[in-house]
User: What shape does this take?
Amino acid sequence: MLLTIILFAACTDNNDNPGDPTQLPAIDAGPSYTDKTVDVNRDGNIYGQVLLRFYSDMPSVAYISVADFHKLMTAGDAMKVTRQGNLYLLATRNGTATVDVKADYLHSTTYAGFVDLMWMLDPTLAPNAMYDGSKYIKFVKMESPSTFKPSSGIRLDFGKYSIDLHDDGSNVYFPFATLADIYSDCNFHNVSYHDDLVVVSTKLDIYSINTIAPEYAAKPYQCETVTADMAKFRYQELCFVFDNLYGYPGRTILEQNGMAENGFDATLDLIQNGQIVKRLLQSTNNMDFAWGRMATQYLINDGGHTSFDAMTGLPENIEGDYVERLMEAAANYPEAYAMYRDWKGE
Assistant: This one.
């Protein structure tokens, strides 16, 4: 599992949006928001535009309609969104899910199929095998959907991580990054948003956004800080990913200290230097965050399967300079640097 948190950009217009008076009232409209339409770069070509939403309580964090996100990732395949009382039923070609925007959760008995993108390559490929070994997706043979052992029903509790879902009476809005993590798959379909551009990759190349748009991919690494709301969100999202999508190989320090039972956040409080790592991962300073990632790599070292260190996946056009800056700053992070050296076997 490779997880990269990207800096999102927010626009500055703070006007309220009253919505369409003919539709049903929202269940959880959230605070005032601003909509922004941005271009989409799909595999190196401009592919239309998409509407993003920015709520006033988290103005740096992009939200998107889940139906628009699904269409974005599938190049036009429809997700049907149906209001059922205070719930929303979401239906894709291979699965369904129910969303409660008031309680901030998603429930599905067909989760792997619901977020499946592998059908675009070959209908016989296993759905969403990127997260094989997680709580919800397990395969005997990953190449065959028939070997999938589904859970009787899964619940993604976003509220546990203070990740708010919203609606407008007919559409459900998730944080863009949360959907990007959920939709990741074995073909490394991935998507990024910052600086008024969405970039989508559908190629079998784990770093393909770096190839599609190298200058765009480099920008987050060149920013010294993020806003307080973005720092809060990226840590919350990181906890969500580790608790729900991580593959649990069974031999890491975090697992040995109870992460499967207690969660990522609570486990950091229990282990040596864990609270230092947490503070770095929660920082608005991007060098702090980078060294938090370096230390976390030691805690999740499983022999090479999982990558989270700050040097993996760097765009080639900034790799040398960034690694040099990272190492120059090492003296400011003695505990994290020691964990990095342990991971490297030095």
